[in-house]
Amino acid sequence: MSEMSNSKFKNVTHCIFDMDGLLIDTELLYTTVINRILCPYGNEFTWANKATTMGFHTSELVRYLIETFKLPLQPQELTDQLIVGYADVFPSSKLLPGVETLLHHLCKHNIPIALATSSSADSFALKTKHLTKIFDLFHHKVLGGSDPDVKQGKPSPDIFLVAAKRFSDTPDPLKCLVFEDAPNGVQAGISAMVPDKNLPKKFTEQATLVINNLNEFKPENFGLPKYD
């Protein structure tokens, strides 16, 4: 208990997890699909572009791509191309280091956990249909891309506020620890961040804690049960 009380972090009671790039390796897959579309036009989706758009809804991403790269495509045309590309690559998604261990640990100790992803229901199904045992561990899932209660995408805090409200005991949002990998997500729920190694350091400065992967997370620093 003394270690917990001496921690520079606040104690929490609930955990909310982003998905892409944090739990599964889909951020690289997104980039692959986008660059397949941009290549014929002589463009490239770089990490500067990615840092800006991580956490966007599909409609926001489509608008950004058309405007930024001056694509001669209508929004629905680009959306359809993205959907086809995603269907090709998302079923190959894999869990990232430390994910399975941490989620099982939190569940073992009855710490409520929720998922808060900008993905739509269809996109979520594509990415996780081979990983259902892990994603069934969550108390609930907020799929921002198709959830009517999520009015605005990240960096708006909507998705995390909705996720907090849907816990059965409706905790104070300040008692919820948010795990994120994206700058937009950190703005939406500043608590903990696990950024991609390629993300420029300036985009991680607002996070309470920055770690390389979930293997490095120490639950006891936030008043949660430590690993056995």
TrEMBL record:
<dbReference type="InterPro" id="IPR006439">
    <property type="entry name" value="HAD-SF_hydro_IA"/>
</dbReference>
<dbReference type="InterPro" id="IPR023214">
    <property type="entry name" value="HAD_sf"/>
</dbReference>
<dbReference type="InterPro" id="IPR036412">
    <property type="entry name" value="HAD-like_sf"/>
</dbReference>
<dbReference type="GO" id="GO:0016791">
    <property type="term" value="F:phosphatase activity"/>
</dbReference>
<dbReference type="Pfam" id="PF00702">
    <property type="entry name" value="Hydrolase"/>
</dbReference>
<dbReference type="InterPro" id="IPR023198">
    <property type="entry name" value="PGP-like_dom2"/>
</dbReference>
<protein>
    <submittedName>
        <fullName>Pseudouridine-5'-phosphatase isoform X1</fullName>
    </submittedName>
</protein>
